[in-house]
Specification:
The chain is an alpha+beta fold and 254 residues long. It has helices at residues 78-95, 123-136, 168-182, 238-247, and strands at 106-114, 141-144, 159-166, 203-207, 227-233.
Length: 254
């Protein structure tokens, strides 16, 4: 044997055999895969066509939520009907007005409740606001002190009361409940004073107990509170204002 090794001879020091021996080729000229090596799947020449995505629909513009109107309009208060049909004619005959617009009419009713005890306990104010909300049908505003008073332990800005102003239909409804329901429930009631006019056609009266109104449940109140009721009219004198309230059947003391 010659010293030079042929290319096809196997080198005993090389366990893997000759480097250029890569195994027999198949008929197409491709070599088989080695052991432990998976044969790669043939690539798909044409991928399956995916269905086109549906076009994103434009989100509808947010519609402004409108206030839900009642199916039926609120009934007109009976005192308002009484004023239009009866009271105006009586005042025109009594004072000799030339036009119905000259007859005095109700302008507003103001309820005011002083709650000085709220300085020590703030929950008292919440109960007072709740009671007045039931009476008036609308939430009152909380009144605050304008200056500090050391003797009463009050500082500027402390809540000391609440008030509410009624107009329109709520004004006539409250007046109806006050005259026909609440006043007859006052203890030892003998009529209201006819001297409480201020000279400009406005009338003021006080109520010592809020439980005279049927909206207030006696078992669910924390304390008995009074309030001031102011009835503002367009009358130019006390006589005209008294005639207006008398037409609404105010029980003046004779």
């Amino acid at each position: 044997m010659s010293a030079a090794k042929t290319k096809d001879a196997k080198d005993p020091r090389d366990p893997k055999g000759p480097r250029d021996a890569k195994g027999p080729k198949d008929a197409k000229g491709a070599r088989p895969p080695r052991e432990g090596q998976q044969q790669a799947a043939p690539r798909q020449e044409a991928k399956t066509a995916k269905p086109p995505r549906p076009e994103a629909k434009e989100a509808p513009a947010p519609t402004e939520q409108k206030e839900r109107k009642p199916e039926r309009p609120a009934p007109v208060p009976r005192l308002q009907i009484l004023y239009r049909e009866t009271v105006v004619k009586q005042l025109m005959e009594q004072f000799g007005y030339n036009s119905a617009m000259q007859a005095p009419r109700l302008e507003k009713i103001v309820l005011n409740m002083g709650v000085g005890e709220a300085v020590a306990d703030k929950t008292i104010m919440d109960h007072a606001v709740s009671d007045m909300t039931k009476l008036a049908g609308q939430r009152p505003i909380v009144t605050k002190s304008r200056k500090s008073i050391a003797n009463y332990k009050i500082r500027s800005g402390y809540p000391i009361g609440c008030k509410v102003t009624l107009r329109g239909r709520r004004m006539y409804e409250f007046l109806d409940r006050l005259v026909n329901v609440a006043m007859p429930r006052i203890r030892d009631f003998r009529g209201i004073s006819a001297r409480a006019f201020d000279g400009r056609g406005n009338y003021n009266m006080g109520v010592k107990e809020q439980i005279i109104f049927p909206e207030i449940e006696y078992d669910k109140i924390d304390a008995i509170r009074g309030m001031n009721i102011t009835i503002a009219t367009t009358a130019r004198s006390d006589n005209e204002a008294k005639a207006l309230l008398s037409a609404f059947r105010f029980p003046f003391r004779t």
